[in-house]
Amino acid sequence: MAITATLGARDVMAASSKGRRRISDAFSDVMTLPVSRFTAVRSVPMDFGLSIPTRGAVATTETIDAFAKRGEALGFRYFAVADHLVIPQSITSPYPYTNDRKMTGAASGDCLDSLSVMAYLAAATSTARLLTSVMVIPHRQPVVAAKMLATIDVLSGGRVTVGCGAGWMAEEFAAIGAPPFSERGKVTDEYLAIFKELWTKDAPAFEGKYARFSNISFLPKPVQKPYPPLWIGGESPTSIRRAARIGDGWYPVGSNPSHPLNTIARYRAAVASLRAQTEQNGRDGASIDLAYWANWYRENKTTTTDNGERHLMTGSNDAVVDDIGRLGEAGVQHCLFNFQRGTLAESLEAMERFAADVLPKVARR
Questions:
Q1: Which residues pair with 206 in a beta bridge?
Q2: 150: closest CA among 187, 112, 196, 191?
Q3: What homologous superfamily does CATH list for 30-356?
Q4: Residue 229, phi then psi, degrees to nearest 5
Q5: What CA–CA distance (Å, rounded) separates 213 from 148?
Q6: What are residue 351's phi and psi, to 5 degrees?
Q7: Beta strands at 206-207 and 212-213: parallel, antiparallel or unpaired
Q8: 132 beta partners
Q9: Do 230 and 247 contact (CB within 8 A), yes or no?
């Protein structure tokens, strides 16, 4: 069935309640846009998400409330929450997502706990899914982490998606007494196995290198069955292998200079590898959800890649619309964007402009 959107920018940006209802209606059209509109491979919904502030001057109760209320009213389906427990004062570990390998905003040192923010969002929202983006799995004792995630899933009525990462900052591992940074991949695999054991078994028990338990009950179980989706973050071959083995989804950032997914050709090649490895693990290659995190998005700002091509999700609104379409053709079901700016007003304006200027064009594509 053809999907159309007839709203102009003045309709979307109108301050009246009627205007706000119209933008939500238009967004709903986009949110149910089947990927079959872009490709004949399969018919699945494509939806959109945004990041919730957890660091810096905009990480306040007022801002989180505003992001949640406005984002949900506009129809965003995923609220992504970043994860750090502490920010060391001196960091030599290379940050994966900038060319200079330095963590943006590290000097401020502040960070809200991601799972506490998700619990807050569970009460502040009613429809949006709550996504760890990504949770550094080795940072928390696994039984405690599994309990916290299950509790949030229960309180939210089954809206948790667990974005999973092994971590990149050795100094943070050392500061909180986490298992050895050099073993973080093995720790991640073991802890995720523990999550599944606790979430699905009546009498869970586990004997591993990093954790062991028995003689316990673990209730309540998550609302979602068999458990909340596990999206494996990361762009490296190791991350892709992990997603192929144990992930329900793959959730990369497109801007990693070491493993760039910043052109459609590069992304397609990575997806082909993911699907092939998934099949090799005896799983259906098409069963892995595909999400794409465009955390660098800025309106009408064009950047180029190392090979001179336009970076995905940069440039004019029409270019971004085209990128969304081409990612849909590659199988992407979830696109997430960063609308955080210097102030709350600027952030909400960026969010609304995206809804006004980009999404109606996606719906008409």
A1: 213
A2: 196
A3: Luciferase-like domain (3.20.20.30)
A4: -55, 140
A5: 17
A6: -60, -45
A7: antiparallel
A8: 81, 162
A9: yes
Residue given tokens 């959800």 in the structure block: 289
Q: Provide the residue type at 25 as one letter.
A: D
Element (H, E) at 43: none
Tokens of 152: 């949030």
Which pair of tokens denotes residue 320?
């971004």
Which amino acid is present at 60?
T
What is the bridge-based pairing of β-strands 249-251 and 289-294? parallel
Tell me whether residue 18 is exposed, middle or buried, using C-beta atoms within 10 angstroms of its C-beta: 0 to 12, 13 to 18, 19 or more: exposed
Phi, psi dihedral angles at 310 (to 5 degrees): -70, 135
Distance in angstroms (rounded) separating the CA atoms of residues 357 and 10 = 10
pLDDT surpassing 60 at residue 39? no
Rounded to the nearest integer, the mean pLDDT of the chain is 89
Residue 220: asked if its preceding bond is cis (omega within 30°), the reply is yes
CB atoms inside a 10 Å sphere around CB 211: 16
Interval 262-275 mean pLDDT: 98
Task: Please tell me the predicted confidence (pLDDT) of residue 75.
Answer: 93
Helix or strand holding residue 14 (H, E)? none
**Contact between 359 and 26 (Cβ < 8 Å):** yes
The tokens of 116 are what?
């506490």
Confidence of residue 46 (pLDDT cuts 50, 70, 90): confident
pLDDT at 104: 79
Q: Is the dihedral of CA 28, 293, 57, 82 positive or negative?
A: positive
Domain range list for the chain:
30-356
Strands (DSSP E) contained in the chain are: 47-52, 78-81, 129-136, 160-165, 206-207, 212-213, 230-233, 249-251, 289-294, 334-337
